[in-house]
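lol forgot to send this yesterday, sorry. C-alpha cells for the thing we talked abt
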C-alpha cells in the first residue's frame, strides 16, 4: 500500500515489520466533544488498518488520550482540561473521563475500529520523565532559568523537515506555547517539563521540581515505548504538522539516534458549509447532531469517503442527507441481490484503496457496479465494505404504519389535492414527529 508521506512529499510504500504494521495516531485532548472534523482524522487510521487487512497484514495501533499538558492557544498559560473543569465545576479527571467516553462512543458510531491501546498522558508521567532525563543526558535538553525543561531546537539537525518550517526562518513572534521571557535559550525551544508555578492541580514531582509534562513529549514517550522504538505509519491532522509533529520527531529521533517514523500521514481540514468549523463561527457539528436529525451516522462516514483524506473538503447538510439516501438505497439493493456472504475481490477497487486511499474512486466504481448488468454485485459490494465499513449488508428495518400515521397520510393527500398547503405542511410536521419522513414527488407523497 502507498501513502502520501508529508516529510518526503511523495507517495511511499508502507512496510510492516514482521507482518505487523505499527501505527500511531495522535488522539484527542479530552476537554470537549470531538467535532466531525476531528473524527475525519481519526477515521484515517481505521482506513489504513482496514486496507492493509485486505493483504492479511495486522496492525498495532496506539492512540493517546491527552488529559494533561495541552495548553490553550488563546491563553498562553491555560491548560485546556483545567479550564473546562472550572467551567463545569468538576475535577479535571472527571472532565477527562467524561469526554473520553464520548470520544469512544463517537468512534464506534462511525465504525472506526478500536486502537490496541489508549494510553493516558496522566498515567504515563514516569515514561515522559525518563525520556526527558535521557534528552538532558544526551545534550538535547536543558533546564531553563524558570526551572522548566526545554528541548534545545538548534541541537537537532533536521528540524523542520516535515513542515518545511526551518529554524532560521522561524521568527520570534510566531505563535509559540510560551512567551519568551528569557528562560529559554532560543525562541523555538519548547517545554518538555513545565514547572508547576502557581498551579496546584495535575502536578507531579520530578527531578526538576514539581510540574507537569508538555504536550509534545507525550506522543514521543508513548509511541517509542508501546511500539518498540519504531513507527511504520504516523497519523494526525494537518494542523498538528507544526509544531506538534516537528517537535515529536525531534524528541524521538534524538533519543533513539535515527528516524523513528517511516511515513507521516496527515488528514486535511474539514470545512462545514464553506467555513472552518469552530465554536466562534457557531458551526460545530457533532455526531449527536447528526443522529438527532434522524440521519444514520454512517452517512457521515460515506461523505468522508467521497473525498480523499488529503484534500480539503466542504461538508454540508445537503451532502450528509444525500449520503443517507445513498446508504438506504444501497442497503435495500443489497437485500434484493440475495443473502450471500461471499466476497469477490475487485482488482480496480483494491488498487484504488492501496493507492493512497483513493476512496472517491471506489465510490464511483460502486455506483458503476450498481447500474451494471453484473450478477455478482452483492459480492463486489461486500468486498468494498471491508474497508468502507458502511454496514452495506445491514437489513432495512421495516415497521408497520400505525393507524394514526395512515390517517394523517390520507388527510395530507386530501389537503394537497385541495391545494391547502398550510394544512399539508402542518400534517407533515405531525408525521415527522411520529418518525415518518415525507417527500412530495410528481406521483404524490412518499414516505420512509
Ligand atoms: Zn501527538
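and heres what i got for the seq, position by position
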Amino acid at each position: 500500500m502507498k501513502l502520501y508521506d508529508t516529510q518526503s512529499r511523495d507517495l511511499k510504500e508502507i512496510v510492516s515489520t514482521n507482518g505487523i504494521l505499527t501505527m500511531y495516531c495522535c488522539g484527542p485532548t479530552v476537554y470537549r466533544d470531538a467535532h466531525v472534523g476531528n473524527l475525519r482524522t481519526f477515521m484515517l487510521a481505521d482506513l489504513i488498518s482496514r486496507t492493509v487487512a485486505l493483504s492479511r497484514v495486522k496492525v498495532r495501533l496506539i492512540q493517546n488520550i491527552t488529559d494533561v499538558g495541552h495548553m490553550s492557544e488563546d491563553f498562553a498559560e491555560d491548560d485546556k482540561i483545567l479550564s473546562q473543569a472550572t467551567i463545569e465545576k468538576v475535577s479535571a479527571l472527571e472532565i477527562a473521563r467524561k469526554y473520553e467516553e464520548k470520544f469512544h462512543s463517537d468512534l464506534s458510531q462511525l465504525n472506526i475500529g478500536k486502537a490496541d491501546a489508549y494510553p493516558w498522558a496522566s498515567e504515563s508521567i514516569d515514561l515522559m520523565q525518563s525520556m526527558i532525563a535521557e534528552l538532558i543526558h544526551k545534550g538535547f535538553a536543558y533546564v531553563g532559568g524558570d526551572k522548566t525543561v526545554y528541548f534545545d531546537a538548534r541541537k537537532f539537525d533536521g528540524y523542520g523537515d516535515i513542515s518545511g518550517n526551518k529554524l532560521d526562518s522561524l521568527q520570534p513572534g510566531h505563535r509559540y506555547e510560551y512567551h519568551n521571557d528569557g528562560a529559554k535559550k532560543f525562541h523555538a525551544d519548547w517545554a518538555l517539563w513545565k514547572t508547576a508555578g502557581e498551579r496546584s492541580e495535575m502536578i507531579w514531582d520530578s527531578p526538576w521540581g514539581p510540574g507537569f509534562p508538555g504536550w509534545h513529549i507525550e506522543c514521543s514517550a508513548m509511541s517509542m515505548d508501546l511500539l518498540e522504538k519504531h513507527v511504520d505509519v504516523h497519523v494526525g491532522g494537518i494542523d498538528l504538522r507544526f509544531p506538534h509533529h516537528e517537535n515529536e520527531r525531534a524528541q524521538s529521533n534524538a533519543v533513539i539516534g535515527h528516524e523513528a517514523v517511516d511515513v507521516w500521514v496527515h488528514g486535511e481540514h474539514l470545512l462545514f458549509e464553506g467555513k472552518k468549523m469552530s465554536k466562534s463561527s457557531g458551526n460545530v457539528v457533532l455526531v449527536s447532531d447528526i443522529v438527532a436529525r434522524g440521519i444514520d451516522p454512517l452517512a457521515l462516514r460515506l461523505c468522508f469517503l467521497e473525498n480523499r483524506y488529503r484534500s480539503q473538503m466542504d461538508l454540508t447538510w445537503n451532502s450528509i442527507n444525500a449520503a443517507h439516501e445513498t446508504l438506504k438505497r444501497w442497503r435495500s439493493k443489497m437485500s434484493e441481490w440475495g443473502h450471500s456472504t461471499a466476497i469477490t475481490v475487485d482488482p480496480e477497487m483494491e488498487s484504488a484503496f492501496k493507492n493512497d486511499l483513493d476512496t472517491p474512486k471506489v465510490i464511483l466504481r460502486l455506483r458503476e457496479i450498481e447500474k451494471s448488468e453484473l450478477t455478482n454485485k452483492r459480492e463486489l459490494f461486500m468486498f468494498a465494505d471491508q474497508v468502507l465499513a458502511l454496514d452495506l449488508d445491514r437489513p432495512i428495518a421495516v415497521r408497520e404504519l400505525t393507524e394514526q400515521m395512515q390517517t394523517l397520510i390520507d388527510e395530507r393527500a386530501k389537503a394537497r389535492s385541495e391545494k391547502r398547503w398550510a394544512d399539508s405542511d402542518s400534517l407533515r410536521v405531525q408525521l415527522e414527529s411520529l418518525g415518518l419522513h415525507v417527500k412530495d414527488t410528481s406521483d404524490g407523497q412518499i414516505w420512509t
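The two ends are 41 Å apart (CA to CA). anyway ping me if u want another try
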